[in-house]
Design a protein that fits this description.
Layout (H helix, E strand, L loop, with lengths): L1 H22 L7 H17 L23 E3 L8 E3 L2 H15 L9 E7 L2 E8 L2 E7 L5 E3 L2 H4 L17 E9 L2 H10 L8 H9 L4 H5 L4 E7 L6 H11 L8 E3 L2 H14 L7 E8 L2 H7 L9 E5 L3 E14 L4 E13 L2 E7 L3 H7 L6 E6 L6 E7 L28 E2 L6 H12 L11 H9 L14 H5 L6 H14 L4 H7 L7 H11 L2 H6 L2 H5 L6 H12 L1 H12 L19 E5 L7 H10 L3 E3 L8 E4 L5 H8 L3 E3 L1 H8 L1
Parallel strand pairs: 2-11, 18-19, 18-20, 20-21
Antiparallel strand pairs: 1-6, 3-9, 3-10, 4-5, 4-7, 7-8, 10-11, 12-13, 12-15, 13-14, 13-17, 15-16
Helix pairs in contact: 1-2, 12-13, 16-17
Bound molecules: 2-(butylsulfanyl)adenosine.
Length: about 650
């Protein structure tokens, strides 16, 4: 058949082009040519759907959204690494290796080193050279199945090249985003600003809609395998033959002294390296030695991460602004003259609270030393040179609505007491839309700012009156994203009650207490009607939470919003109320994949019957629910002689 032949040809051309561009960084086709071939391929596949294979180049654009991420349990866990922070600790580690291996002090060990990338772990699995599965690291043993998302990462080959290994090959590596790509992405992002490339990479990889993942500039470097090779260096050579990228900075070091020299070089080069790194990984090169060295509980003896020092730079403190948080807390933020620190431009730093400013003795106009360590928000370490400015005065009024601020006895923050303060509204909306709450995709910070500024939204209920037409008139909002947002909002109407409760942003009422309350009372009305005594009667609900709830539900404005939400069709799904549930006292752990329900669902239903659901098997565990592909937890439960249920038994238990 002619179409099949052309299909195969086009696949080969596009795969080669992909490899040249994304893996070798040496393109041979122009973008226009690539697109032309891709369109031709798409046309053939549209006409002959049978020709679509899971690894066709057309699949890189991302498949249909998934309802949830499946868990993925592996036999050989993805380990973590011990850290050292200075030459003395590094030498001590080398000493330890020599002792363990019974070597003389003068014997050298060959190492293999490379930068430690500040990204997120990914395992890619090939069967007979074809990509079959991508999975996140998770807790090492159990991660999430991100196969559909992984397909959109162009530097992950769908077919291995050269002499392809028979059977299964598992390669582990790091997914990351280059610094320049990160800055560009944040600049054009309408609804969210990401704190750092790592968060963006990790979030993108776990997107339920793989088409979104496809739009993110993700890259992948391989760095370890679940199989035997003669050496780390040989493994990297194989990876490159197969078309998998490895760090171009990876290199052998014949002696410990060479490792120390390389460390200094990398620290000096750090700013020029196009992606964020937070240390250097040192591995014993020989796999035979690696095997002899083995592992401690969760990290191998044969590898360490030699961390880089946190990076500090001095800059000028331009001003101290006051931000209003979701709960009305007025927090000072340092505005800085922009300064690049470890690859990210820093222009704000946290000052935590009023006492911190006093402690540092910092005033606008001072030169300050700013530190950025990993993903934490940059902070001011100290004043390096006074600018002779005036001491900063704490706010007497809310900077947004002008209401007089209150500072409770013994508190380090002052607060805006006005619940209708627009700044709090923005914060409220952001919290409401966030993941652990109503999870409204597309309703991000920048959009919320516009909605509040244009007074299109004055409270939560207004969200549900927004139309695609109104939304598409907003800045940087296309017709498609407007329609999607309206759909996302509509879908949020039936979120489970605990999420809605959490989304209300009641002080001291977070994810956990929301869950407990929803379980105990069943419906929103019952919670609204509950007296303080009834609330206090619930296990784990203390006076702070009870008081805060009563306060919230006794304010007429809040009740009015709830009424309007109900009118807008909001219908949080109740969880079954427990009154002496039949699983009271049971500690259940879920593992493996369930076919009939998600784990979240199983968890919620178990909890509704009074069970508490743990994440790891311990002596306290009373039951293990083992789905498909259950791994180490099942083994451990058997060792501890814990009652084990399969999915059918679970269903029976849940009634
Ligand atoms: S090798 C022990 N090489 O760091 C397993 N890991 O702290 C061998 N990481 O979860 C890992 N860059 O995801 C290795 N060049 C690199 C790395 C790297 C980042 C991550 C990895 C692991 C974590 C361990």
């Amino acid at each position: 058949m002619k179409a099949a032949k052309r299909h195969a040809e086009l696949c080969a051309i596009l795969e080669e082009a992909n490899y040249r561009y994304y893996v070798l960084d040496d393109p041979t086709l122009s973008d226009i040519e690539y697109d032309e071939y891709l369109r031709e391929l798409e046309a053939i596949e549209a006409e002959h759907p049978k020709l679509v294979t899971p690894d066709s180049p057309t699949q890189r654009v991302g498949a249909e959204p998934l309802p949830h991420l499946d868990t993925y349990t592996r036999k050989t866990p993805m380990l973590s690494m011990a850290n050292v922070t200075n030459p003395a600790e590094f030498q001590e580690w080398v000493e330890g290796l020599r002792n363990f291996l019974g070597m003389e002090e003068t014997d050298e060990i060959r190492f293999f080193c490379e930068p430690k990338i500040d990204g997120t772990g990914l395992e890619v699995i090939y069967r007979d050279g074809r990509f079959v599965t991508g999975a996140t690291r998770g807790d090492g043993t159990t991660g999430e199945d991100v196969t559909a998302q992984t397909k959109t990462i162009h530097s992950v080959p769908m077919k291995l090249r050269g002499k392809v290994p028979k059977g299964e090959l598992s390669v582990r590596g790091e997914v990351f985003i280059a610094k320049a790509d990160f800055e560009a992405f944040n600049k054009q992002s309408v609804d969210r600003v990401f704190a750092n490339p790592r968060n963006l990479a990790a979030g993108s990889l776990r997107m339920l809609d793989p088409r979104t993942t496809a739009e993110r500039p993700l890259d992948f470097y391989a760095h370890s395998a679940a199989h035997e090779f003669p050496s780390q260096e040989a493994f990297y050579a194989s990876c490159r033959d197969w078309g998998l990228r490895t760090s171009p900075l990876a290199q052998p070091c014949e002696t410990a002294a060479d490792v120390e020299a390389l460390y200094d070089t990398l620290v000096a080069q750090r700013d020029e390296i196009p992606y964020e790194i937070d240390g250097m990984v040192v591995k014993v090169d020989s796999f035979a030695l690696q095997q002899r060295l083995g592992q401690r509980s969760r990290s191998p003896r044969w590898a360490i991460a030699w961390k880089f020092p946190p990076v500090q730079r001095t800059t000028k403190l331009l001003s101290i602004d006051v931000q209003v948080g979701r709960t009305g807390a007025l927090t000072p933020v340092a505005r800085l003259e922009p300064v690049p620190i470890a690859g990210v431009t820093v222009s704000n730093a946290t000052l935590h609270n009023l006492d911190e400013i006093e402690r540092l003795g910092v005033r606008p106009g001072d030169r300050v030393l700013v530190e950025r360590a990993g993903d934490v928000i940059p902070k001011i370490v100290k004043v390096t040179k006074s600018g002779g400015g005036k001491a900063w005065e704490p706010p007497t009024h809310c900077p947004v609505c002008g209401t007089e601020a209150e500072r409770d006895e013994g508190e380090v923050v002052s607060r805006c007491p006005n619940v209708a303060c627009p700044a709090q509204l923005e914060g409220h909306l952001r919290h409401y839309a966030a993941r652990g709450a109503m999870d409204i995709e597309g309703l991000g910070a920048k959009l919320i700012t516009q909605l509040v500024e244009k007074e299109m939204v004055r409270d939560l209920a207004d969200l549900y009156a927004l139309t695609a037409e109104q939304l598409s008139e907003l800045e940087r909002m296309g017709e498609k994203s407007a329609t999607n947002l309206v759909a996302a909002l509509a879908a949020s109407r039936t979120r489970p009650l605990p999420r809605f409760l959490n989304g209300l942003g009641i002080r001291h009422v977070g994810e956990r207490s929301s869950e407990i309350l929803a379980q105990r009372f069943g419906t929103l009305d019952a919670i609204v009607a509950a007296t303080e005594e009834e609330l206090l009667d619930v296990d784990e609900i203390g006076p702070e939470v009870a008081e805060s709830l009563r306060g919230f539900f006794s304010r007429p404005q809040n009740l009015e919003v709830l009424r309007r939400l109900e009118q807008a069709g909001l219908d949080p799904q109740p969880v079954e109320a427990v009154e002496g549930g039949k699983l009271d006292g049971e500690v259940v752990v879920l593992t493996g994949t369930l076919s009939g329900m998600t784990r979240d669902e199983a968890k919620a239903r178990l909890q509704a019957l009074g069970a508490s659901v743990g994440s790891s098997v311990t002596k306290k565990t009373t039951m293990l629910v083992a789905g498909e592909k259950a791994g180490s937890k099942l083994k451990k439960a058997k060792e501890l002689e814990i009652r084990i249920l399969d999915e059918d038994a679970l269903l029976e238990l849940l009634g």
